[in-house]
Design goal:
- By secondary structure, the protein is of the alpha/beta class.
- 37% of the residues lie in helices and 16% in strands.
- The chain has 17 helices and 17 strands.
- It has a 7-stranded mixed beta sheet, with helices on both faces. Strands 7-2-1-11-17 form a 5-stranded parallel beta sheet, covered by helices on one side. A 3-stranded antiparallel beta sheet has the order 8-9-10, with helices on one face.
- Helix 1 runs parallel beside helix 10, helix 3 packs antiparallel against helix 4 and helix 11 packs across helix 12.
Length: 482
């Protein structure tokens, strides 16, 4: 069987390598000049990448290694700040009176997250009226094994806002801010938004060890795995049309007119763009067209890169120089930033997600809306860079003397450079109605589409995630079994 994979991001690379290892002929088409997508120059967290996928693709033979993630430092204007380790034993000294509560919280996560992780590692269940009951019963029994107390707690806190949930356990606003931040990745939410606890649990269920060398090392290993498996890698090949004849996908047309035929087509770009732009409208049923038209993808992510003359040294903890840092002293800082998103304004005080090396810092800003009033101009782009330095200055007084802004990516820049509709890094917002068997819709979450031979495998499909590889892997298993 021959397969064309559209999109050379991390999910496309995972899918292509998996299909090739199954013995299929695979051609991977990427519109940009290089592979990796958001893992190549945008996102920096790799702790959600599945170690099971790494093992199945033998990425270790291509130099991929894992290590425990670095602790996150939350600086403070008053006091020493907080260096948060995931391990509650390591975190105890920093947390003081919250140490026991953090230990209990981690124990709760350890009990309930294996069930969530097992759902993320499998294809979404078929919840249609004609779907088989046995798989649903098995999932229900696995959920039941968590025990009555934990089941009730999950059902109680899942729909709640994460700020309320964490306030029940912890006193320190620094700790609550650090834990809340992960709940907001890929969402259109603040910590006071309903169901943000569910997205926190989702993020925690996907987290584990991180890749040594970061996202660039992951991309290098995935490209090598594709090459070693015989995948034909074709960068700078942008697909303009998916060819459909008699209800079946037959291949693709590349910009410039080249036609490629295949037995299957797997799209690892956004589901809405795939079905509404690459497929001619007469081939897509009205139901699925409507579902894709209603898919929400309001990007809120920006990135600022700094060149450092010396490592960032925080005034509240001289000499620490952490690899990871979150600038947000209180969950309300995150909520106020989201207020600006809701009203389509330029944020005035930026929460910052910082990844630092010796010579540079990558800063992610998750409160910059693509729907900014008046649009993103060069002046607004420079203003974002200035606001980034201003947000750091209270904690790093010499930041303007040691740092130079080298690159600013607004949500509009991200949409254009990474070919992401809405500037959304996950091809669709994370929310209760766009998760699991509803991601991106009830009829499309299991990778197959109404068009025979056309499949979906991007982060816009269950189980979503940033750099996890799971959607591409699961799509490859579905395609390979048909």
């Amino acid at each position: 069987m021959t397969v064309i994979v559209i999109g050379g991001g991390h999910n496309g690379l995972v899918a292509a390598a998996s299909l090739a290892r199954q013995g299929h002929g695979v051609t991977l088409l990427e519109g940009r000049g290089s592979f990796g997508g958001v893992a190549a120059g945008l996102l920096h967290d790799t702790d959600s990448f599945s170690p099971n996928i790494a093992k199945a693709l033998d990425l270790a033979s291509h130099g991929l290694e894992f290590t425990d993630p670095a602790p996150v430092f939350v600086p403070s204007r008053e006091g020493p700040g907080l260096l948060l380790h995931r391990d509650p034993v390591q975190a105890a000294e920093e947390l003081g009176t919250d140490a026991e509560a953090y230990t209990n919280w981690c124990a709760f996560l350890k009990r309930v997250l294996p069930f969530a992780a097992s759902q993320l590692d499998s294809v979404a269940p078929d919840i249609s009226t004609t779907g088989p009951l046995l798989p649903l019963m098995r999932r229900g029994l696995a959920f039941r094994r968590m025990g009555k107390t934990d089941i009730h707690e999950c059902l109680r806190i899942g729909p709640a806002c994460v700020d309320d949930t964490l306030s029940e356990h912890f006193q320190s606003p620094l700790l609550r801010a650090a834990l809340s931040a992960r709940a907001l990745h890929g969402t259109w939410m603040g910590p006071r938004s309903p169901s943000s606890t569910a997205t926190l649990l989702l993020g925690e269920a996907q987290s584990g060890q991180e890749v040594v060398g970061g996202a660039s090392s992951l991309v290098t290993a995935l490209v090598a795995a594709c090459e070693n498996s015989g995948v034909e890698l074709r960068p700078s090949c942008r697909v303009s049309r998916i060819q459909v004849s008699q209800g079946r996908a037959k291949g693709v047309t590349i910009e410039g007119g080249e036609s490629l035929l295949a037995d299957r087509v797997l799209s690892c770009i956004g589901p809405r763009r795939t079905l509404l732009e690459l497929v001619e409208s007469e081939h897509l049923p009205i139901r699925e067209a409507g579902q894709m038209a209603n898919l929400r993808l309001r990007g809120t992510l920006a990135r600022v890169s700094l060149q450092l003359a010396e490592p960032i040294d925080y005034a509240c903890r001289p000499g620490l120089r952490p690899k990871r840092c979150l600038v947000a002293e209180h969950p309300l800082d995150l909520e106020r930033a989201f207020d600006h998103v809701k009203h389509r304004r330029m944020p005035t005080q930026l929460p910052l997600d910082i990844h630092q090396t010796e010579e540079e810092a990558s800063i992610l800003i998750r409160c910059a809306t693509i729907e900014l009033q008046g649009g993103w101009s060069d002046e607004r782009r420079q203003e974002l860079g200035e606001l980034t330095l201003a947000a750091l200055e209270p904690y790093v007084p010499n930041i303007r003397g040691i740092a130079r802004v080298t690159r600013i990516l607004t949500p509009a820049d991200i949409a254009e450079e990474f070919d992401l509709e809405g500037g959304h890094e996950m091809h669709g917002e994370l929310s209760l109605d766009q998760l699991g068997p509803m991601r991106p819709s009830m009829t499309l979450s299991r990778h197959a589409t109404p068009i025979d031979g056309l499949y979906l495998g991007s982060a816009g499909i269950h189980p979503g995630g940033a750099i996890s590889g799971r959607p591409g892997w699961q799509a490859a298993q579905v395609v390979g079994s048909r």
